[in-house]
Amino acid sequence: MEAVGWAARDTSGVLSPFDFSRRATGEKDVTLKVLYCGICHSDLHLLKNDWGDSIYPLVPGHEIVGVVTEIGSKVEKFKVGDKVGVGPVVGSCGHCNNCVHDEENYCPNVIFSYNYKYYDGTITYGGYSNIMVTNEHFVLRIPDKLPLDATAPLLCAGISVYSPMKYHGLDKPGMHVGVVGLGGLGHLAVKFAKAMGLHVTIISTSADKEKDAFEHFGADSFLNSNNQDEMEAAAKTLDGLIDTLPVSHALLPLINLLTTRGKHVVVGIPTKPLELPVSPIIHGRNLLAGSCVGGLKETQEMLDFAAEHNITADIEIIPIDYVNTALKRLEEIDVRYRFVIDVGNTLKSTS
């Protein structure tokens, strides 16, 4: 079926209108009209081929929400008119150990929402487009209580911080958890952590975000990571860290904040390798871990938790033709706290 989106054609990362085709709705497929799509920092990396694996033309977007317009003959979970979402994962083998344990995101044959080859050899295109066609297993139900626009970022940013908190046991009331970086992922990490009953410290290089940290997000404490005295005073106080920074940064000052057996979980993906100081990890019996989004079951659990606790992203809604400016602003860290494209109202056909 005919589709329209915005795509980059080269490493300039500049997006412009792009006509392409989606597959027809298969018997297990859900077709949705895309209404909103969040802008993730990984979109910026892939648009500019920062990780060396970009496939052009490239239509980004993996924080996708909309309304079901058509279902296949064997679809059981959804009906036309349902509010649904599609996150980063749209395919997996279904039978490996990861898939069997509801961790499709770690499947060796995982297929991501864009910039990947699908089963039929075609390239996947993301949510900066008017329609999506996705196997029902990889479609998520958006709870009625949640607004679609501010829910879109939960499908990547939200699950990226919720999953490691749950997996590493950093979700027990009274625990002291630090959130490194108060951006698209970081602000949601604070919201989830507070809803879980945690004591939350925000660690940021942006002193101007301290007011937001306390007054808007309800943080318990704030550390300016450029202030050595503050960092040293907080040494050995945190049970865990959720490190959301998508840029290269020093790990040693952060690891020094951990208690014995504390866990430092990295969820941001810098373009350059981080330097790993082994000695403090050994002497603190600390764990340095990574985490990549979440499986479909856990992502649905996260959405239901968000609905129960009224958790949504703080967003700036933009028209599709503002997207290049938004990406430039994102690169300059000029957004509080997530851009969301109003696809449904502003994306028009080029034909």
From TrEMBL:
<dbReference type="InterPro" id="IPR013154">
    <property type="entry name" value="ADH-like_N"/>
</dbReference>
<feature type="domain" description="Enoyl reductase (ER)">
    <location>
        <begin position="13"/>
        <end position="347"/>
    </location>
</feature>
<dbReference type="InterPro" id="IPR013149">
    <property type="entry name" value="ADH-like_C"/>
</dbReference>
<comment type="similarity">
    <text>Belongs to the zinc-containing alcohol dehydrogenase family.</text>
</comment>
<dbReference type="InterPro" id="IPR011032">
    <property type="entry name" value="GroES-like_sf"/>
</dbReference>
<dbReference type="InterPro" id="IPR002328">
    <property type="entry name" value="ADH_Zn_CS"/>
</dbReference>
<keyword id="KW-0862">Zinc</keyword>
<keyword id="KW-0560">Oxidoreductase</keyword>
<comment type="subunit">
    <text>Homodimer.</text>
</comment>
<keyword id="KW-0479">Metal-binding</keyword>
<dbReference type="Pfam" id="PF08240">
    <property type="entry name" value="ADH_N"/>
</dbReference>
<dbReference type="Pfam" id="PF00107">
    <property type="entry name" value="ADH_zinc_N"/>
</dbReference>
<dbReference type="InterPro" id="IPR036291">
    <property type="entry name" value="NAD(P)-bd_dom_sf"/>
</dbReference>
<dbReference type="InterPro" id="IPR020843">
    <property type="entry name" value="ER"/>
</dbReference>
<dbReference type="InterPro" id="IPR047109">
    <property type="entry name" value="CAD-like"/>
</dbReference>
<protein>
    <recommendedName>
        <fullName>Enoyl reductase (ER) domain-containing protein</fullName>
    </recommendedName>
</protein>
